[in-house]
Write a structure and sequence with these properties.
- The chain has 2 helices and no strands.
- The chain is mostly loops and 75 residues long.
- The chain has a domain of 44 residues.
- The radius of gyration is 22 Å and the shape is elongated.
- The protein starts with 15 loop residues before the first helix and ends in a 6-residue tail after the last helix.
- 0% of the residues are buried.
């Protein structure tokens, strides 16, 4: 008995009607208690120097050096 393969086959898209009616749910639509968001901001100047970073009260700001000090390992 051969093992069926899905590679190269068209699959039915079951979520299309929901999305087309505007009823689709996406990851960004969900909110939970103590939820955090991340935004990565890049410089608009190729060889510029960042002199300061400000954010709203309560925001945690991280720079490239912060991330290098505590690297994220693959799961």
């Amino acid at each position: 008995m051969s093992i069926p393969t899905w590679v190269g086959r068209s699959l039915p898209r079951l979520d299309d009607p929901t999305i087309l009616r505007g009823e689709g749910r996406f990851v960004a639509d969900y909110a939970v208690d103590a939820q955090w968001h991340a935004v990565f901001v890049r410089s608009s100047v190729a060889a510029g120097t960042v002199r300061s970073i400000r954010g709203p009260v309560g925001a945690h700001l991280f720079t490239a050096s912060d991330l290098a000090a505590a690297p994220i390992t693959p799961v």
